[in-house]
Every structure is written in C-alpha cells, then in structure tokens.
UniProtKB/TrEMBL annotation:
<comment type="pathway">
    <text>Protein modification; protein ubiquitination.</text>
</comment>
<dbReference type="GO" id="GO:0061630">
    <property type="term" value="F:ubiquitin protein ligase activity"/>
</dbReference>
<dbReference type="InterPro" id="IPR043136">
    <property type="entry name" value="B30.2/SPRY_sf"/>
</dbReference>
<feature type="domain" description="SOCS box">
    <location>
        <begin position="247"/>
        <end position="282"/>
    </location>
</feature>
<dbReference type="GO" id="GO:0035556">
    <property type="term" value="P:intracellular signal transduction"/>
</dbReference>
<dbReference type="InterPro" id="IPR006573">
    <property type="entry name" value="NHR_dom"/>
</dbReference>
<dbReference type="InterPro" id="IPR037962">
    <property type="entry name" value="Neuralized"/>
</dbReference>
<feature type="domain" description="NHR">
    <location>
        <begin position="8"/>
        <end position="241"/>
    </location>
</feature>
<dbReference type="Pfam" id="PF07525">
    <property type="entry name" value="SOCS_box"/>
</dbReference>
<dbReference type="InterPro" id="IPR001496">
    <property type="entry name" value="SOCS_box"/>
</dbReference>
<dbReference type="GO" id="GO:0016567">
    <property type="term" value="P:protein ubiquitination"/>
</dbReference>
<dbReference type="InterPro" id="IPR036036">
    <property type="entry name" value="SOCS_box-like_dom_sf"/>
</dbReference>
<protein>
    <recommendedName>
        <fullName>Neuralized E3 ubiquitin protein ligase 2</fullName>
    </recommendedName>
</protein>
<dbReference type="Pfam" id="PF07177">
    <property type="entry name" value="Neuralized"/>
</dbReference>
C-alpha cells in the first residue's frame, strides 16, 4: 500500500521541562533557561515526509541555536526527557541530531558531485530532448527533489512580517538570503530511503537541501522528528506542507495573494480576520 503523505503535524505531549505548547500543539516556546527544550513529533514520520518548523522568536545572550533530527525512540516511553539533544539524547542511542549554525550547514560530498556529473553526461549521450529538459526544469522550480523524494517548495521558504517592504523581502527570502538561525527561517528534517530498512537523514533550510548529514539510519522501527528549542532559539512553530492536492484553505490563500500587489492591502478587503491573518503570514 502506498504511503499517503501530508498528515497534520503536531508536537508530542512529552517534551522538555522548559517547553510550553500552545493549544493547537503546533507551537513550542522555551519559557526558561537555555536547555530542556527538546520536542518530538506527535506521530512517526513517513519516508520522504518533511517535519518543517519556522523560528518565531529568539532570545539574545545565549550561545547556540536550534537543533533538529530524528529518533527511533518512542517519546512516550522516555522516563525523563534529556536536558540536551546533543549529546544527551544522542548518547541514549537510536537518535541523530544536527546543530544548526549561522553558516556552514551544508554537507559537501565529492562523490555526489561526481555522480551528478556522470548522470548529466549519460543523459547528453542518450540525446535528451529539449522538451524533457524543460519539463524537468518546470518541476524542479516547484518542487525540491532529494533522490526519489519530492517535496513541494510552496511552504519551504518563510515570509517576512507584513510591512511597507514585505513584498521586496519575500523575494529576497526566495534567494535563500535569510540566515538559517534568523526569525522567519524555516528548517525541516526528512529521511530518504536508500535501501531495505535504511535511510539517509537530510536537513532542509529555507528550501535548500543541506545534503545527507547522517547515513544508514535504520527504518525498521517508527522514526520521530526531534526539535531542540535550544539557546538563542526561543520559539518555533510547525509549518504544514501540502502534498498532492492543496487544501481549500491553501487554494483560497493563493487566489487572494495572486490578485493583490501588497500584503498590507488585505486590511482593506472584506474578509474574515482569520483568513486575512493566514494570507499575511503563510
């Protein structure tokens, strides 16, 4: 049976002692100190399904930022949630966590570059048509491809807060100019199947794949997402990703945004306030 992607993402009720979740279970805030901020996904992830969060707030004075990864440990079975994801949770075993930094998050693999070059040469030798190339470019523009995994790009890049220059900032965000640790930055984790019962963990930052930061993760057990709201990262919220057919809410948002020049113009439209808020921020 094919896996259906697009489950509604929430945080697990089991989390670090300094974490407070909102009523929807999609927003996590660290209310004290700089540690004890570990959160988990409420349900296991499916292969190729991204768990995406946006940094909503930061707290100055701390050294370090958001940490994200995967665990094969059921959060509900933990007697106590570790104080830190690195190294405490990882030291328990069956957990893989990546520390996000302002720079140098991308994993560079020489073999990957060589393989991509060889693949391009083979396509050229086979006489790939111009139409095939255009088709590939079209789908690449709207989706992020990681091996055999396809993720819609629509929600992978954050948006600026509504203001006079938000339309300019939104275009800049799409060029990945936003630092990974900044407010409005969107960071996700996904595991990509590589064989029978193994996968690679990839981190996606503002729409760009950072590469396979962990290889050979066993997937014969349920795998949960891990988000450590650590140090300078104060608050994160889950961003829901639409796979396949978009929801009616998303279609309404896209239609409205298509016909306005600036998001501040939403204030003059006779729309429900909740819909205005959704169009402004999502």
């Amino acid at each position: 049976m094919a896996v259906i992607l697009g489950q509604f993402m929430e945080f697990h009720p089991v989390h670090g002692t300094n974490v407070r979740l909102d009523n929807s279970g999609t927003k996590a805030t660290r209310v004290a100190s700089f540690a004890n901020g570990i959160c988990f996904s409420k349900h296991p992830l499916n292969p190729g399904e991204i768990f995406l969060v946006e940094i909503e707030d930061k707290e100055l004075g701390w050294c370090g930022h958001l940490r994200i990864g995967l665990t094969a440990r059921d959060p509900g079975t933990l007697v106590t949630v570790p104080e830190y994801s690195l190294p405490d949770l990882v030291d328990l075993g069956d957990s893989w966590v990546f520390a996000i930094t302002r720079n140098h998050n991308k994993v560079i693999e020489q073999e990957a570059h060589e393989h991509a070059g060889q693949a391009a040469e083979m396509r050229a030798a086979d006489g790939g048509t111009e139409r095939e190339s255009m088709s590939r470019t079209f789908f690449t523009d709207t989706h992020l491809y990681i091996d055999n995994v396809c993720i819609p790009k629509d929600k992978l890049v954050g948006r600026s807060r509504p203001g006079r220059f938000s339309h300019i900032l939104d275009d800049l965000y799409k060029t990945n100019i936003l630092p990974p640790t900044a407010r409005r930055s969107r960071i996700g984790v996904v595991y990509v199947p590589k064989g029978q019962s193994i996968a690679d963990m990839h981190i996606v930052i503002n729409g760009e794949d950072m590469g396979a930061c962990v290889k050979g993760i066993p997937t014969d057990r349920p795998v949960y997402a891990v988000v450590d709201v650590f140090a300078a990262t104060k608050c994160v919220r889950i961003v829901q990703v639409d796979y396949g057919f978009a929801s009616l809410q998303t279609l309404c948002r896209k239609t409205i945004q298509k016909h306005i020049v600036h998001r501040m113009a939403l204030d003059w439209l006779e729309l429900p306030e909740l819909l205005k808020h959704f169009c402004k921020f999502d």
